[in-house]
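Contributing: when you submit paired examples, paste them exactly as shown. First protein:
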Amino acid sequence: MSEASKNLLAGGDDELIATGDDELIFAEEDEAEQKPLEEESWKILIVDDEIEIHNITKLALNDFKFEGKSITFISAYSGKEAKEIIQNNYDIALILLDVVMETEEAGLEVVKYIRDILNNQIVRIILRTGQPGQVPEDVVIVSYDINDYKTKTELTNKKLFTTVVTALRAFRSLNQIESSKSELEKIAAASARFVPREFLKFLKRESIVDARLGDSVQAEMTIMFADIRSFTSLSESMSPRENFEFLNSYLSRVGPVIREYNGFIDKYIGDGIMALFPNRAEDAVQAAIEMQHQVKIYNRHRQNSGYQPISIGIGLHTGTLMLGTIGEAERMESTVISDAVNLASRVEGLTKLYGVAIVASVQTLCRIDDPQHYKCRFLDRVQVKGKQTPVAVFEIYDGDSPTMIELKAQTQTYFEQGIFFHYQQQFPQARQMFLRVLQINKYDKAASFYAERCDMLMKNAVIMTLEGIEI
């Protein structure tokens, strides 16, 4: 028996915990290892190339209990074996680790592997060495992330008990901290579903916990409003549950598109979406086009399931707005306040009036590097209620079907000539141009709208001002 083992058994002036020869110790160890494991126990890994150290340690802690839990021992006889075990047992609480095994620094290599490679900062590591002069304590404590350094001769049974309790208590506390941290991360992730991270980022807040009533910031962004056409009549044919399932199915397809193009959803308004694009106006345009493509894919799925297809209208406008929090001490929410938001909502409403999929204000198109890259046509100048300056609006039809894109491109000259004559008060000529468009593309609802408007203006002899229609 080694001197370290004798010391662990007898412990100098500590109470003697076992007597007899090695054969008796091994017999008791065999009996201990056959005891059924409790449902919950502390896992302790013993790493030492001396079998005797394993047995003596297990015997010394045989009746150990801490917070109602006993110990499950795991043995490794080399640094290599220890690495394999710790990799597959992340819940090991304590490692009693020898330094000198297959190499002079095998134990130290295990420490580096655990902390640096596995990134396990929770498991407690106590180095035990029989050759303290070979690996000085001060050097090891400074250079390696260990929790204690003991020579095998000083770890008597009482000191071993104290050391293990201290280590397990620290492991328990760290686990509680990690659990709390994990729970906070889950709460933060869940809160981001209600208050976008981007919103908090603009308010310079780390999380929703830091948000304060009245926080606000001014910024220029592109605002998107998207709405399902004829949703009221569509929803009347569905039960409340079916309505929720339908909306969630639709939103699960268009929501990711907004995020893909660097936008974030500010709020859901019934079947509508309000989204913000803080970086580039072009992000919003590309998102709007892709959303129309996703709706087409969704409609194929709906038709295969026996449901009627849907269509959405999207309005885009770029302007300055205020992001912030409103409410009172017990209930507040994030919001965006601006004339630009109101205008974006009105622009989305124009998609119904003209029968088009995407309408963008001139302010949005002017912030695109190359507007000619997109298929668009001038629609009208509109007067926002309460505002003096009319706003030019354009249709972007890249999201239409290939056939419709080709027909609109083919008739674009006629359409633009019709708009020109319309603003010149030459309604017969304007009507003629729009009818030419409809002869080629009978599904062009904007041309149909203008042809009917010209009829009405001629019939009633109305003189139209250049401010356009009021929205």
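Second protein:
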Amino acid sequence: MSRECSGRVDALYIFKEKGKPGRRIRTAEIVEGKGVRGDFHFEDVDAPVSIAAVSAGEWMLRQSVQGLCFRRFKANMWIDIPKDELGTIKNGMQLVCKGIVLEIKKGKGRCFAECERVKRGLPCLLREGCWYAVSVSGGSICEGERVKIRQKK
């Protein structure tokens, strides 16, 4: 992506326990070198912040064939960005909001052979619409705030 992609923070969540429902919050504290304060993955060294595009979540709800990850994937941050920009967001890019910088370390990753969508040869928008990131710089982020996704400086 040669230009910046702009969007908005649609929703923020904290997941205190693995596999349990999350709690929606209005403001999240992102800690430099870590993740979202209070989240189960706060100190995950690889990528403690999970991010998803709102369009990917809406797409999942419309599918008659559920993917294995539909119930498993949990996002700390849901961002509203243009759907046509999803495939342009790559590892190493940065999500920036005010003084917060999150560096995207990996996308959703591989699909599982036992997934019904994989068995049927159906596409999955989660591969393009969710990412895991690490905090390069921290601060507070609120629902409704504008974000930019850019090449790393």
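If you have annotations for the second protein, write them as plain sentences, like these:
The chain has a mean pLDDT of 89.
Helices lie at 54-62, 69-72, 116-119, 126-129.
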